[in-house]
Protein 1
Amino acid sequence: MADLDTGEGPTKPTTGITCLFLDIGGVLLTDGWTHEGRKRAAANFNLDPAEMEERHHLTFDTYEEGKLTLDEYLGRVVFYQERPFTRAHFRTFMFAQSEPHPEMIDLVTQLKARHGLKIAAVSNEGRELNAYRISEFGLDRFVDFYISSCFVHVRKPDTDIFRLALDIAQVPAGQVVYVENTPMFVQVAEGLGIRSVLHTDHKSTCAQLDSLGLSNGDRALDDSPNNTGSAEL
């Protein structure tokens, strides 16, 4: 498991919650390969956006389930005919669409250290994109388990991905909080007894986690009437 070097021994959990399940795209990072990102790619590489979008939707789920490589996906969506640019050039553009949400990364890092939590990423992502994002944004500094669709060959909203996450993390559903930005996925997790936070922004997620006993320690400062500055992470 990923251990944080805080200069102190590991912190024992201070609530009945022992594990956080987190989405990656939309919570820790931007989504990896969005409609807007594909529109930018179509414009940048002079591709037909409607045709590219249709081909994407026909095959992307298969890629996210780990049944296609990225090269195979691109062969179906972009390189099914000769192009004046390389696969490497397109991959670089594709990967560059990912950006971090640093305040959420900081929040999770602090919660892990403060409450002694296990951290599991439960995410729909293709293998190569997932690997790039984990490495590029240092997610392995604090994430202990990756229940990525490309590894387990099942995607959200299938309940099996959440059951696998519980088995891999070795925690009961009642000790987990799941942070997710897609309402349906929140509802599916809650149907399995996993308390869930619908993430819309950093501030509201902090408040919801605090109400569950997962404070990052800054709430008192944020709420103080004498605090004239921002204490956001």
Note: Confidence is low (pLDDT under 50) at residues 5-10, 220-233.
Protein 2
Amino acid sequence: MMRRAPWGISILALAVFGSSHAQAPTAPTPARAPSVQAPTAQAPTAQAQQPPAQSMPAQPAQPQPVPAQPAQPQIVAVPPAPAQAGYSAPALYNFANAFARAGKPGFAVLNYERARLLDPSDPDIDANLNQVLVASGLPPETHTQFERMTAIAGTRTLAWLGVLGLLIAGIGALRVRFYPRHRRKFAVATLLGIVMLGVSIAHAVALWPIMHEAVVITKTAPVRVSPTLIEETLFVLPEATIVSTGAEHDGFVLVRTATGRTGWTPSTNLARIVPRQADHGNAG
């Protein structure tokens, strides 16, 4: 009896413990939201720190800034002056045509006049010269009968004609003295030489005024009473006017127009038709 007591106690205790659990209702487990597993924080690796390489569109090359260049002054296109070796009538004629097309009648008339001195028989030079003068509001040039006749021969031919006439006249005069039998023949030769020399001298006399003529190359050339800027202006010469020059004083030149009016104007307003040695080759 004493041996079975522990077993009975144990059975009784288990029965009591089971009944207590059966009677106590179990509390309902509250519904839990589905758990979202947070990503495990990991130490960023070198690849995680750098964004994945993506193909970027090619950027157009940016133009490099160019430093601003200083504005260059606009230069009117003017043909170069003829060189010493090319100082001929055709060169001056073409040079004058270029100035006429460029709207510079003063330089055009200047070079037409120079070309006509070298080739007075060229009709195109006279035609273009008068055309420029008329377009500038100036009267065309006129020529005497003697100038037309000498223009046919040419300045160089007439110069050589004078030299030849001088030789013939000299030789004829000597022959008349030493050969009296042929006096009449040598007298005729002497007379012929004198005529030839006279024609050349007359042509030189006709050209002498041109040696002292000049052309107005500026838009206007004010002519004053005396060679100073403080004097009043007598009249104004337009561009391309041909004047005769006289005395010079302190940068001024005494000029005389075709109508006889005289006065002083700055020498920078003029260009001589026959250039001096100092400005030889300066065709404008």
Note: Residues 1-5, 19-57, 65-79, 280-284 have pLDDT under 50 and may be disordered.
Protein 3
Amino acid sequence: MSKKKSSQKPSAPLPADLFKLEALVGDFMEYWGFKKIHGRIWVHLYTSTVPLDTIELMSRLGVSKGLMSLALRDLLEYQVVINDHVGKHGSVYYRANPDLRAVITHVLRSREQKMLSDAHKAATAVKNLSSQKKDKSQLSDEKIQNVINLISSSQLILQVFLAQEESSENVDLFSHLLAQSG
């Protein structure tokens, strides 16, 4: 981070439509497994023409310094926001990562890929229970296998998506991987 001239505060009140967008994106982010505050912060940073500091974000969102600090830490970890510069009084200014595809693929790679792997291990562990335990618990081998197949398919789709994002060539990896798995 470099020292830059601090960004100026908005000269006019923010439009009500921005707050409606903020709420809706917050709801969407919450649905995707993040916190609503993450989406609310992101909207202000992404739509702003200038980087914003914590004080401005707290003012816009009406939240505490503690909540803002925790939320920004999460957003920085997932590379959703970026430290832009340090103002003259030591305030850190943030901006949204402009590369939305990179943000999404980073989240998919760091969170969803692990979640699917853990689910596959857990389903396989259930499948590997003794027949006696499965019978006693009234577990269906066929349905357990269906769960494993669903997870495996999801892993394959995610791998294809991430591989295509990494590849600069326009190769039909999906067909290639399907041919290998069949």
Note: Residues 100-181 form one domain.
Protein 4
Amino acid sequence: MTTSESGDAVDAGGGESNERELRMAVVLDVLPHGRTDDDRPRYKKSPLAYALGESDFRLVELRLDDDSDVSIGDRVVVEPAGERVDVAEVRDVEYTALSNTALSELEYVVDEILTEHESRFVDFYNDAQPITIRLHQLNLLPGIGKKLRNNILDERKRGPFESFADLEERISGLHNPKDILAERIMSELRDDDLKYKAFVRWDAES
């Protein structure tokens, strides 16, 4: 379950909402000497990392333990706090706060998450529902208008989609359904002013 900027709930389908489960993030960049704009002496600065949540696409800054062994591409626990290893603190950050390396890694990591959790994201196409009388969740995806949306809704009544390949085969005009999701997720990460966010969730917890 995610929320729009206005507070409207938007269920992206297949979200991992069990609080007892470990919430993981993929490391985008590691700053062993902290941020470059931190003018404190080096010995006073903790190593930092930027990461992307696997279940919620939450962008976070991690304050790492001084003796941590964390590298780009590693998966780390962000919640619950008691299960963290090498991570002392987690806080939300905006897209514009990411380092250049983190920005360059972001699209690759989004693609990896979509690939590794394919069934979860295929279920977005299976489970998407109307947001308002005039707007459907499927219409949040780039390139999906009324006709293509209705084709998806009609076809899924015949049976759930099993994979991205199944989607592409059964829906005429729907090309690269995984890439369509990736494009939407990147838009939600970049633009804080989007009214509806189907995939990116920001939490106050840290």
Note: Strands lie at 2-3, 9-10, 23-31, 48-53, 59-64, 75-79, 87-92.
